[in-house]
Design a protein that fits this description.
Number of domains: 1
Structural class: alpha+beta
Order of helices and strands: EHEEEHEHEHE
CATH architecture: 3-Layer(aba) Sandwich
Distance between the termini: 39 Å
Strand content: 25-35%
Number of strands: 7
Radius of gyration: 17 Å
Largest sheet: 5 strands, mixed
Strand order of the largest sheet: 5-6-1-4-7
């Protein structure tokens, strides 16, 4: 029998005051955008589990069960909003998230292409101000995130 992950909450505990947001650099090719979203969400989940475990229940992971009794878990009951904006906005959003002490993770162009060893080397050789930020993933309350992301548009 499948059992839900320990981070799964009761549906009555879904905290709709919190949200997950991914902000991407405008005009990324679809495959690159999907790759960035995947890496950002994985990183955000691990960062929450290891650095801010008190936030995991707020992420409202649920156990979905289908009509045949199959378990589809964990999946957040919160909306995942994917936005896009200018490259300078992505960098600013990252900086503002850091300053505000929010849970966030970022993903850059230097983290793509070649092997992970190539990517690590490229990052080590690139000053922060020259990094090509592809996106930032954030988790927090609507009151914390909405003012930081109001300039961004929904990804279409």
């Amino acid at each position: 029998m499948n059992t839900p992950h320990t981070a799964v909450v009761d549906p009555a505990a879904v905290d709709s005051q919190h949200k997950l947001v991914v902000a991407l650099k405008s005009k990324l090719p679809p495959g690159v955008a999907a790759n960035a979203v995947g890496h950002l969400c994985l990183g955000l989940s691990v960062k929450a589990a290891t650095q801010r475990p008190e936030l995991l229940p707020k992420m409202s992971f649920l156990a979905f069960t289908d009509a045949d009794g199959g378990l589809h878990s964990p999946v957040s009951g919160l909306s995942l909003v994917v936005l896009e904006g200018r490259p300078a906005w992505i960098r600013r959003l990252r900086d503002e998230s850091e300053t505000a002490g929010l849970l966030y993770t970022d993903f850059t162009g230097e983290m793509t292409g070649g092997t992970y060893a190539d990517q690590l080397d490229r990052m080590k050789q690139t000053p922060e101000q020259l990094l090509d930020y592809y996106g930032v993933a954030l988790f927090g309350t609507r009151d914390e995130l909405d003012p930081l992301t109001k300039k961004f548009s929904l990804l279409r």
